Amino acid sequence: MYTFSYQKPSSVADAVATLTGDDDAKVVAGGMTLIPTLKQRLAQPSALVDLGSVPGLTGIRRDGDALVIGAMTTHATVAADATVRSALPALAALAGGIGDPAVRHRGTCGGSVANADPAADYPAAVVGLGGTVITDRREIAGDDFFTGLFETALEPGEIITALRFPIPKRAGYAKFRNPASRYAVVGVMVAETAAGIRVAVTGAGASVFRVAAMEQALGGTFSPAALDGIRIEADDLNTDLHASAEYRAHLVTVMARRAVEAAS
Amino acid sequence: MPVSITLTVNGRPAALTVEPNTLLVDAIRQHLSLTGTHVGCDTSQCGACVVHLDGVSVKSCTTLAVQADGRNVTTIEGLAAPDGTLHPMQAAFKEHHGLQCGFCTPGMVMSAVDLARVNPNATPEEIRHWLEGNICRCTGYHNIVKAVESGLQAMKTGAAAQAAE
Fold this sequence. Notes:
The complex is a heterodimer of chains A (about 260) and B (about 160).
Chain A: E1 5-7, H1 12-21, E2 25-28, H2 34-39, E3 47-50, E4 60-63, E5 66-70, H3 75-80, H4 82-87, H5 89-96, H6 101-104, H7 109-115, H8 122-128, E6 132-135, E7 139-141, H9 142-145, E8 146-148, E9 151-152, E10 160-166, E11 170-177, E12 184-193, E13 196-202, E14 209-210, H10 212-220, H11 245-262
Chain B: E1 3-9, E2 12-18, H1 24-31, E3 50-53, E4 56-59, E5 72-74, H2 88-95, H3 105-118, H4 124-130, H5 141-164
Parallel strand pairs in B: 1-5
Antiparallel strand pairs in B: 1-2, 3-4, 3-5
Keywords (chain A): FAD, Flavoprotein, Oxidoreductase
Protein name (chain A): Carbon-monoxide dehydrogenase medium subunit
Organism (chain A): Novispirillum itersonii
C-alpha cells in the first residue's frame, strides 16, 4: 500500500468537510474492496476517511411501507435481521450470499452500492426493488444511481447514509455465483411492487440494468414459464475468463426464472 | 504519520504505534509477535488470517490496524486456557485429525468457533458453507467438517456444564 493519512470523523458533516477539502481523500466503510485495491496499489488516496465511528449510520428500521437500512450496516446484519427476513426475505438472502462470513461481517451495504462493482449483488436490490439511495444531501432514485462501470451519480465528497427499499408484494433473487469469489457472474432480482414488476440484472453488463420484456411478460403472468422465449442480446454484455457474453445472456433468463420461483 | 492505537488482544491491553496502512494481521504478527495467525493468500480469500474482532470473525489481512482501535481482538493464541488446556474446538481438530500441514488451521478454528455464536447446531452442509472463506490446500475438508461438528457439540456441553456449576 502507498502511504495515506487516516481520519476518523465523528459525524457525517465532519466526513464531508474532510472530503470536500481534499479531492484525493477516500471514504472507507467496510473496506472489503478498498483495502484489496490499496494493497495492489491500484489507488493512491491522500487520506482514508473511516466512517466506522460515525454514529447513526447503522441499523435497520421499518418506515411505513419501506425498510431503511443504514449505510454502514453489514451484510451479515442484513442477512440475519428478523425485520428484513420477514418483510423482504429476498434482500436477506442476497446479503447472506455475498462473499463469505468473515467478509459479510465487515462489508457494508452503503460501501457496496457506492463502489458499484458490475458483479456486486446490492445494485440488483437497489434497482430491482425500486430502492432509493439516501445521501448526506439528497435522495437519489435507484434507477438514476448507477451510471456505468464503477460509476454512480454521487458527487465528489457525497456520502451515502442509508438505503430505502419499498417492501414489495413479493421478490426473489437468484445468482449464478463465481465459486471462488462468490461475486455474481449473473444475478437477477425480480420483484412485484406497488408500481409494477421490476427485473434487474447484475453481473452481466457494465452496470446493473432492467429488462423491460421480462417485466412486461411477468406483469401478465407471474410465473417462470412467462419468461420462456425471452432472450437477452449478448452485444453489450461482459466477456471475461469466467463467462462469455453469450453465456451470460443465457444465464440472465435462467436466473430470472429461478428468481421468480424463489419469490416470496 | 504514525497513529497510536489501543487494542485488547486476548484479554490483555496492547498500546501500539502503527502506520495507517498497517494491516491488522501485521500488527498482530510483527508488533505483538503473535505468529499463530497466518497470512496465506493476502487477498481475503483463504481465511488463514481469520481473527475475532469484538467476538466476530474477520479477515485480518483485509482490516487495517487503525480500524481495530479500541476494540477486542482474539487470536488463536487466546483460545486455550492459561494452563494450556485446549479450547474444545482445538481439541476436536486434534481428535478428528482436522489438519494436515496445519497452515490453514488457525483460521479454520477461529471461523469454526464463531459458527458456534451464529449456528451452534450447524449441519455438515451448513459447516461447509460457513467455511467457504477458509481454504485448505491439503484439501482436508472431510476431517475439518467432522472436527467442527464435534467441536460445536463440545462447546455446547462445556457451556451447559459451566451453567450448571
